[in-house]
Write a structure and sequence with these properties.
heterodimer; A: alpha+beta; 9 helices; 43% helix; globular; B: 135 residues; alpha+beta; 3-stranded antiparallel β-sheet; 12% strand; elongated; transmembrane helix (chain A); lipoprotein (chain A)
């Protein structure tokens, strides 16, 4: 058996792509991200090439300089959002998963044969509010509050906001502030370019791109400013988690706009808990059980119902929640332990003798 | 002399009662009763909780760090260590220290929660091979 050292990112489950030996982490589909880059760089190039000479001469050289700085800031924020770990929660290793399953079974007691076991939910009281923690069948964990499973990236993400195809990544706890700074600075850049475009029209294309970008990006920035002031995520907003009916209130809000903004935008920079560039042993040829513990039982298609895109009835169990438990319990009985050592082929032993 | 075999593992779960901050439950696992005092376990978990609270504290210092970082388009993080990372190193040293002084002599091993996604404090229980160790 040959043991070699690999970087941990090579063995991470989920549908992310990694670049620069694990330094960069993105979603699998990056087409729209390239489009975003093209639109920003393209429009700004037109601006710098055709507008700026006129503006620098007739108005002030400070105008293109400020535009350049703003442009660089926008690109930096975009790349930061796209390339960073949004706050992915690593999947439970086999022993942890088994431990949790045992706890669940102990809590459920004896379920009569033929009956569905109850949905896997843990209740937690936060700030006088009962919050339900759902069990993720793919990651085999009870999701922390505000975490959600992204079906596109196939990961549970902490403080999940949404999956943004424009940046080619999920937006979560770790990169939300970069995402917000990106939309804010892009809004400012678009307004800036648009203003000068109207003052001195050189390319109609530029005006058109700016016009449409303005409405969408400025609107998005406004929406996220609203969310930040209430300390809510897009996911919670869509699901109506704290919409106020049944006297349900957001337990995470400080009830103070300034404090909420400070926490979301200027809070501590959370480190990534995925040790992407760490080294680990990989035994070849056969055993990859230690590296990808959940891959054998994560092919459960029902686990995809834990999606974030479909609006769910807030804090209620959809009927789909019960279905995975049957499939999962069937699979569980098939693969009790995932630590079987590989049986060496007789011919391998022969080769070693030579 | 072969290394001791793993007898079982205990996973101390997160305590979300105070929100999304990193905090672990202080409930003493029954599997450790024969190996460890409740008080020692309590102290370890409480210290860890305090350290994580220090890392995630919202205050003047964290706001200053955040604002300064934003002004540099977050490039400052390429050369400077964040406050959180500094505290994580502290936590790592504390766990190593606890393992050496308290847990290893009792055939236990604390795993740094950062290696489990800050989800659990994993305590490995090794089989007790000391003869006549009846505790």
């Amino acid at each position: 058996m040959i043991t070699r050292k690999v970087r941990k990112w090579e063995k991470l489950p989920g549908k992310n792509t990694f670049c620069c030996d694990g330094r960069v982490m993105m979603a699998r589909q990056k087409g729209v991200f390239y489009l975003t880059l093209f639109l920003i760089v393209g429009t700004c190039s037109l601006f710098f090439a055709f507008e700026c000479p006129y503006l620098a001469v007739h108005l002030s050289p400070a105008i293109p300089v400020f535009a350049a700085l703003l442009f660089l800031f926008v690109i930096a924020m975009l790349l930061r959002t796209s390339f960073s770990d949004p706050g992915v929660l690593p999947r439970a290793l086999p022993e942890e998963a088994t431990f949790i399953e045992m706890e669940i079974e102990a809590a459920n007691g004896n379920v009569p044969a033929g009956q569905r076991p109850p949905p896997r939910i843990r209740n937690v009281q936060i700030n006088n509010q009962i919050v339900k923690l759902k069990y993720c069948y793919t990651c085999k964990i009870f999701r922390p509050p505000r975490a959600s499973h992204c079906s596109i990236c196939d990961n549970c993400v902490d403080r999940f906001d949404h999956h943004c195809p424009w940046v080619g990544n999920c937006v979560g706890k770790r990169n939300y502030r970069y995402f917000y700074m990106f939309t804010l600075s892009l809004s400012l850049l678009t307004i800036y370019i648009f203003t000068f475009d109207i003052v001195h029209v050189s390319t109609v294309l530029e005006v058109l791109v700016c016009f449409f970008t303005l409405w969408s990006v400025v609107g998005l920035t406004g929406f996220h400013t609203y969310l930040i002031s209430l300390n809510q995520t897009t996911n919670e907003d869509i699901k109506g988690s704290w919409s106020g009916k049944n006297r349900v209130q957001n337990p995470y809000s400080h009830k103070n706009i300034f404090k909420n903004c400070c926490e979301v935008l200027c809070g501590p920079a959370f480190p990534s808990v995925l040790d992407r560039r760490g080294l680990m042993q990989e035994d070849s040829p056969a055993s990859s059980t230690s590296a990808a513990p959940s891959s054998s039982s994560s092919s459960n298609p029902m686990s995809q119902t834990m999606k974030t895109t479909a609006p769910l009835i807030p804090n209620e169990h959809t009927p789909d929640d019960a279905k995975p438990s049957i499939a999962a319990s069937a699979e569980k009985s098939d693969s009790p332990k995932e630590e079987d050592p590989p049986t060496p082929q007789p011919w391998v032993a022969l080769i070693k003798l030579i | 002399l072969r290394p001791p075999a793993v007898s079982s593992k205990v996973f101390v779960q997160r305590d979300y009662g105070s929100g999304t901050i990193s905090k672990f439950q202080t409930k003493f696992p029954s599997e450790l009763e024969s190996r460890l005092d409740k008080q020692q376990f309590d102290e370890t978990i409480q210290t860890l909780n305090n350290l994580y609270a220090e890392a995630e504290k919202l205050g003047g210092k964290s706001y200053l760090e955040g604002c300064l970082a934003c002004l540099t388009a977050y490039t400052i993080f390429l050369c400077m260590e964040t406050h959180y990372e500094k505290v994580l190193k502290k936590i790592s040293r504390y766990i190593k220290d606890q393992n050496e002084k308290i847990y290893a002599p009792r055939g236990l091993l604390l795993t740094d929660p950062i290696e489990r996604g800050l989800r659990v404090v994993e305590i490995t229980i090794y089989e007790d091979r000391s003869i006549g160790s009846g505790r």
